[in-house]
Amino acid sequence: MQPQILDGRYQIERLLGEGGMARVYLGRDLRLNRPVAIKIPHPHLMTDPEFLARFRHEAHAAAMVSHPNLVDVYDVGQDGNQHYIVMEYVAGVTLKQLINREAPFAVPRAVRIAEQIARGLHAAHRAGLIHRDIKPQNIIVTDEGQVRITDFGVAKSRLSTAMTETGVALGTVDYIAPEQAQGRPATPQSDIYALGVVLYEMLTGRLPFTGDNPVAVAMKHISEPPTPPRRYNPQIPLALEAIVLRALAKDPAQRYASALELAEALQAYDRLGSQVTVVNPEIAPSALVRPINPPRPAQGTASRPAPVPSPRPATMRAPRQEGIGCGIFLVGMLTLVGVLAVVFFVSSGMMTTLFSGDLRRPSPNAPGNVQSTPETPSPTTVATTTVPNIVGQSDGEARSLLQQYQLIPAPIGEYNRDVPQGIVISQTLAPGTLVEINSPLSYTVSLGPLLIAVPDVRNTRSDIARSQMIAAGFTVKIIEEPSQTVDAGFVIRQTPSANLRIPQGDEVTLYVSLGDVVRFPDVIGLSRSQAESILNNTAGLTLVYVDVQGRDRLPDFDKYAPNQVVSAARETKDGYVGINNGDYVPRGSRIVLGVRAEE
Prior knowledge:
The chain is α+β, with helices and mostly antiparallel strands. It folds into five domains: 1-89, Phosphorylase Kinase, domain 1; 92-289, Transferase(Phosphotransferase), domain 1 (Orthogonal Bundle), CATH 1.10.510.10; 384-446, 2-Layer Sandwich (Trypsin Inhibitor V, Chain A), CATH 3.30.10.20; 451-515, 2-Layer Sandwich (Trypsin Inhibitor V, Chain A); 518-596, Trypsin Inhibitor V, Chain A (2-Layer Sandwich). 27% of the residues lie in helices and 23% in strands. The protein is built from twelve helices and 27 strands. 30% of the residues are buried.
């Protein structure tokens, strides 16, 4: 077979990998005689004008960015109906492969890789591109240690005018930023969070969050603090741990303001770390990382920072004192000794008086003791009330009842699929508990189900679409059906429709293409005439032969009626393949029926 050549210039050699929207091939630029990587969308996406517009737009945006830590985009083109992007081919291994083989990395190695990723991200962000899928699988590391970010397949340009993103999946759940997991738009801080996860993984050999399914992992990204990496690898210095945890802050505003700021923090750490001795391996975090919530100055204290003390001057010997100066010094010393002696004896006498007699109290008649009659405190009456039962009542009814019982309502909202909105789910104190009046009583009120917009996963590969739905909080049902327009394994349509807001946990049905196939009708078991009539009216199938079988060829000959269809097969280049009722066969299949002879 002749190799395919695009536009007479780019020769396709072999498949390198496949993603949700495109395949990437190793190719050769025949004009410049150099290897290239060629990205070609899946065939069914070639007819989607919205996807193709976004495909070209993002490729042009990426081509405008040139940086040593980004894979260069050389060309964007179209050969007939085939669209393609030509990129720099980088020989190396993915960072994920290195992590699987060698993690945890030595601290300097992890820091330098992360710094290069951050600098590449800064270049992309400055050009208006947000990667949205930073993960070790999309980082190539060359034999020389050069880091290159690739696959802007789900990248979003802030300059894009596209309103929808059909076929674009969210980033991988293991590295997804909390705001992305919640369905909010990605920002440069989302890429910084993902890089924080990558750095955590390089240093510890594990991910900060794991779970039984993607939605469990996504929820941990949203609400659970990461385990400090030093618990898994005590060799990580405190200052580096502080950098990692700041990048992993839940609130994007608490992360680094830019990828450049993160890169500079890593560079500063690397420079300082190279000067640290073995005796003192820790670096003060304050030198590299500002606190996420800087403490406020104590009340009554000036808010300006304390002045940094000047270096101590070199010690100098005082001039020698002569004559009367020495005498004054001796007199002063003798006087000080005398005063200390008096204080000592007075203190000893008082201590003896206080603690003599086996630590008993001094006699009330002892000299110097003044007798007094202790005052008896008067009893204090505390007004109390009983906590009523408010579970199952509406919030308004609960407030009214608590006020009658002289308690302060303190409701807390909580999303709940099973309890109607506005109904009290639980209360912190059990009914009948005795409490002071005007005490607050906390109780939980249902906010109803959490409504989430259904992602648009049409024309997305089914496994990616399923993961995206689960990450959004939905359960997924897959139904496979034929399609003449959508490649096998990709989503044809979905129910409910995209962008519809439905309760978290609801089921979403994805209709996945089996490809251009035809269902073989239920003709086995029918009479020959019935089967022939059905097959002749089934589009995409052709009956080419009826094989009449006698006793010599058909086992259990008497089990079947004369002229009854007992089997079916379709022609292939290697012979015949048996088929059953309901099987899917390629469109255009040529069918052979086996029929029992009359006698």
